[in-house]
Amino acid sequence: MMKAKTRKPKAKSKGKETPKQIAKKLEGIGDGMVADIKKGKDPSFKTQLRGRSNVEFDEDRGILTLGDKETTRNFLNIGHARKFMQTTMVAAKTRDYLNQNKTASIREVYYELKHTVPNSKENTFDGQTESDAVIVDLEHSVNTIREKLNLHANPKGTLYGDITLKDKMHHNDKFNCAKLGRGGWSVMSRLEPEEIEIVSVNAKYVLVIETEAMYERLVEEQFAKKNHCILVSTGGQAARGTRRLINRLNSEKKLPVIVFTDGDPYGWYIYSVIKQGSMALAAHSQYLACPEAQYVGMTLHDVETYGLENVTERMKDGDIKRAKEMLEYPWFKNKLWQNQLKKAIREKIRIEQQALANKSLEFVATEYLPKKIKEKDFLP
Amino acid sequence: MMKAKTRKPKAKSKGKETPKQIAKKLEGIGDGMVADIKKGKDPSFKTQLRGRSNVEFDEDRGILTLGDKETTRNFLNIGHARKFMQTTMVAAKTRDYLNQNKTASIREVYYELKHTVPNSKENTFDGQTESDAVIVDLEHSVNTIREKLNLHANPKGTLYGDITLKDKMHHNDKFNCAKLGRGGWSVMSRLEPEEIEIVSVNAKYVLVIETEAMYERLVEEQFAKKNHCILVSTGGQAARGTRRLINRLNSEKKLPVIVFTDGDPYGWYIYSVIKQGSMALAAHSQYLACPEAQYVGMTLHDVETYGLENVTERMKDGDIKRAKEMLEYPWFKNKLWQNQLKKAIREKIRIEQQALANKSLEFVATEYLPKKIKEKDFLP
């Protein structure tokens, strides 16, 4: 079970360094190892311990964080040697990326470094999970996020509304996301301020939407303009780039964030990852989470309020299992979410965003969302 | 097994009508039924027979088409009555959409029309598959595509390069897709010329890319500018909107289309759907297919040519089964594809686009693609 912990915020040391400075830090790790070897010492590498045992929920800040437990890996320990080699390979490669101003997806790094060690049958990496784990180790040991190591995950998500961005790495393109037709801007995997500047934003809040289809509905209904907001669709679980965008709209531009997903444990989990961060990336919640986010729907109470009994669906076993797990998470330990989750487990039904079309196509845009948002009828 | 057939192209009657004219056609169906009822006759509804037995491969045009077999549904036939009701419901609703200038996703139509018939326990629709089937029937009976009935599927896909679009339904926004930073334009579900105009395009060809990650790689390498092309990423199987975009770039703008997917049966199937159309939508290939498309890679021969033996993956059983099916499709009945598929079944390996990173990150952009495209080293 997840621990809840109250402690003072860490100084925000991360993220101020230039690519060259981070490259220097990576070189520092290598220099230390070389020095150890020259002294006849066993070279070692220190990183933070991951896994649930070291993940904490910081109640003051409302985000998941990684605890202080550390782990050391030694080259001359047979159990560590392989991972040690992998770590130095990825460190050297990302150092090169930073110096050459190149970026790579984490799958590309895996492929770029995979080979059979000469005169052996040993592969450097046997699968991407191995290189992914090493990347997380490196993030911790140089105290940064992968985007600042010039690595990234796959992109997903769309942005629409009166917001002007500038891509400093692409001819300083400046574009307003309300003027790209109904399609909107395809959110990149990399949303760091060093690369993408939020030039201006003219909105009262950000509405984050789980499905692309609902996003298109709200665009067609001119919801952004009529309600003075920005629309971000995640297309399911939000990608890192999209989470970083939401985080920046909230922290830099002070925009409230309102999340709108399907009414089921999967949708609620999408919300919780946007709000508190994820366990796998607990160390980076300050970049990726948005603790002030609020949840507008769908809730199972909406089913009764709006007479949607006819358009619910049965929850799958996996959903019910997930709901039971979520009951135990500290950040769902409040009355409203406990009620919601217990209701889901009891009634075994789910309700999709698009089910609101049962009232009328425009109902979601003209009644459901405006009313709930005006009355602040949110879950925390 | 799929039939191959050579016959004269049908006149392209579809797609010239205005929304009002299509609404009139839908009303015509209803008027006919009312007239039948008034005459004491059993009202009926005629549509094309679907399913593989009526799907043909038109060798002259290089696309899948639907044959001439028709089927009639009668209201007073107990086996037809439910579907008859569903058809009239969807026809009436899409007539309303057209008259009100509204559009809807096919999931929204399902939700909008789903209810329990008063004084009964009968639901109008028990699942989206029922309404989806009725939509296809209607497309056939008024000889159009769902987009022109103001219906659409979910969007997916991204567009990048020196192409200027205008969205006539959204303030006539005009934007150039090379000037939206590295993110690009998020392709809509609706790409009909009545809505989205291709104002200008400055490119020698269109490169269609299966994965978002490879798309980002090529954007970073400035591939579009250096090679004077447009990039379209499909993010897996191409959505209808993206297929329509590719179709229009080829048919309206006469741009050659080159497809670049993972080297496995799934990737090759993505290619074949872009090129010849799909069996499920055989009636609409003229809008959605692109018979002139060519395939640049990945091929299993690339593995040997570029020494990628170390970064192949084992094919799953499902992939092998799919490859065996594809051997029998008429449009794969040529020596090059038969060789490719047999090689896959024999060696049971697959090779991803991103595996080219094993040479170097930029290899795909500076050597692999330029060389193969220059030498027209394509599969048909």
Automatic annotation (TrEMBL), chains A, B:
Mg(2+) binds at E210, D262. One of its GO terms (cellular component) is chromosome. GO terms for biological process: DNA replication; DNA topological change. Transmembrane segments: none annotated. SUPFAM superfamilies: DNA topoisomerase IV, alpha subunit. It catalyses: ATP-dependent breakage, passage and rejoining of double-stranded DNA. Residues 1-27 are annotated as: Disordered. Keywords: ATP-binding, DNA-binding, Isomerase, Magnesium, Metal-binding, Nucleotide-binding, Topoisomerase. GO terms for molecular function: ATP binding; DNA binding; DNA topoisomerase type II (double strand cut, ATP-hydrolyzing) activity; magnesium ion binding. Residues 205-373 form the Topoisomerase 6 subunit A/Spo11 TOPRIM domain. The active site is at Y111 (o-(5'-phospho-dna)-tyrosine intermediate). Residues 82-150 form the Spo11/DNA topoisomerase VI subunit A N-terminal domain. Residues 14-27 have a biased composition (Basic and acidic residues). It holds the Pfam family TP6A_N. Residues 1-13 have a biased composition (Basic residues). InterPro entries: Spo11/TopoVI_A, Spo11/TopoVI_A_N, Spo11/TopoVI_A_sf, TopoVI_A, TOPRIM_Topo6A/Spo11, WH-like_DNA-bd_sf. Belongs to the TOP6A family. Relaxes both positive and negative superturns and exhibits a strong decatenase activity. HAMAP family: Top6A (MF_00132). Homodimer. Heterotetramer of two Top6A and two Top6B chains. This is Type 2 DNA topoisomerase 6 subunit A. It comes from Candidatus Iainarchaeum sp.
